[in-house]
């Protein structure tokens, strides 16, 4: 019996198999391209978040320094581009008693200056909490994370508000703020200051998640005077 081969059948099968291989390779190439694009997007997002955090961190540090200058009554002099004593300027943004709450005078009964607005209160970024709770700020006390409470969250001092510090168009500095707690000390003529600074990044939830940096430090004016 003779067997006859159908002309072109094998070549058609080979072409079909080759086409299948090509399609598989194209699919793999597409998957690799999509994976690479997603990886690049993820890396870009991570880099953007890191840059945003760094800007916010630097702004929070600047707010701490700005608060210290606020306490020391120093302001930015546009003429010399340096910080000088508020008293050396003809006009300055520094705190004035006529405008509201100011820092206590060590030669007077400074605690009474805050009682008028209640034992626990904040005004223009200056906060006072009665009792020893203000020192430890333990959980459950009024001073514990007070900057998150509705009564105090808006009672901050904006960066540069009382020192004239320039923001240089930096959005992180424009959002920087601080609160200064006045803490009574029985063995000192003046209080200890605890500064809480907060800054937010430029990225929002729609662009990869918001950034918030919170920093704290203590400032002892008596120790500064001894050094100076």
Shape: elongated
Mean pLDDT figure: 78
Global Rg: 31 Å
Number of helices: 5
Structural features, described:
The structure is a single chain. By secondary structure, this protein is of the alpha+beta class. It has one domain. The chain is built from five helices and eight strands; from the N terminus they run H-E-E-H-E-E-H-E-H-E-E-E-H. Strands 3, 4, 5, 6, 7 and 8 form a six-stranded mixed sheet that branches. Strands 1-2 form a two-stranded antiparallel sheet. A hairpin with a 4-residue loop joins strand 1 and strand 2. It is elongated, with a radius of gyration of 31 Å. The model has no long low-confidence stretch (mean pLDDT 78). This is Pilus assembly protein PilX. Pfam families: PilX, PilX_N. It comes from Variovorax paradoxus (strain S110).
Provide key terms for this protein:
228 residues; alpha+beta; six-stranded mixed sheet; two-stranded antiparallel sheet; 8 strands; 36% helix
Quick structural gist:
The protein has 228 residues and is of the alpha+beta class.
Write the layout of secondary structure elements.
Layout: H1 9-71, E1 74-77, E2 82-85, H2 112-115, E3 121-123, E4 126-128, H3 133-136, E5 157-158, H4 171-175, E6 177-183, E7 192-200, E8 212-219, H5 221-227
Parallel strand pairs: 4-6
Antiparallel strand pairs: 1-2, 3-4, 5-6, 6-7, 7-8
